[in-house]
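To assess whether ligand presence alters the predicted conformation, the chain was also submitted together with NAP. Input:
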Amino acid sequence: MSIKGKTIGFLGAGNMAEALIKGLLKTGIISADSISASDVRLDRLEQLRSLYGVHTLSDNAHLVKRVDVVILAVKPQIVAPVLREVASEVTPEKLVISLAAGVSTATLRALLPKGVRLIRTMPNTPALVLEGATAIARSDGLKPGDAETAREIFEAVGKVAVLEEELLDAVTGLSGSGPAYVALVIEALADGGVKMGLDRATAMTLAAQTVLGSAKLLLETGAHPGQLKDMVTSPGGTAITGIAALEEGGVRRTLINAVERATLRSRELGRAGGEDKKA
Ligand SMILES: NC(=O)c1ccc[n+]([C@@H]2O[C@H](COP(=O)([O-])OP(=O)(O)OC[C@H]3O[C@@H](n4cnc5c(N)ncnc54)[C@H](OP(=O)(O)O)[C@@H]3O)[C@@H](O)[C@H]2O)c1
């Protein structure tokens, strides 16, 4: 099943809904006429309607009734009341895709009628600039093509991995929390530049663009990070001197530990039902 020819509805018209609407319209696979959004904030609905030409509604149940694919895009702590409100409209003909961080498919299923076709996802903040990394978790009861439909939707805002649900904690520890790690690295690189005499604005631009460009080079060439490192390091040169300092500081071990600890914290929060504190 492709998203082409289908209608999509967003329950909650916040940042993530807007990112997906923007991305989908940019790909051209779906027209504004096939997209609807509902929200409690009428000013926000008006804004999305005038910016993107999508349909807007203040009634969540009505939104679910009129679309083929429902994207649950409210904050995790609002998920339960919103699903209770729309449950009677969620028929097996509809595909429900949840963005809610840390809310398991078991929790979602308990709030919805039997036979629901459900996909849970873990996007990240760069989706807001159409450079997201999203993991999609398959679950029981999907129709052939459902995971592909979800993939198509999230590829509009970046890269997608389709995984089993138990791996979503690791995804939260890596790409979900990762924008915070990278922000810290960029800030620290810029601090180094300022320490050595660059002005703050220049240092920040150079640091952020270096991270962006290096990531793009790896993704576009498919090269191993070690190859990129070797391309930049000449014998007795500056880059190898900088790398020796990074290794002295245990940069690899520290980043591995960061992903591991964030993953364990995600599991812990999931068990405690603390979904609202994720990522
Ligand atoms: N942003 C990210 O980078 C990111 C990353 C990973 C996962 N996610 C997940 O994506 C989901 C959406 O996040 P977001 O950042 O887009 O949140 P957001 O910007 O707060 O958007 C949620 C929208 O839903 C509205 N809302 C509140 N109660 C509602 C109700 N009963 N019915 C309909 N709409 C209602 C909110 O209005 P009010 O503002 O008035 O409450 C807000 O406009 C969350 O579950 C989050 O865990 C987001």
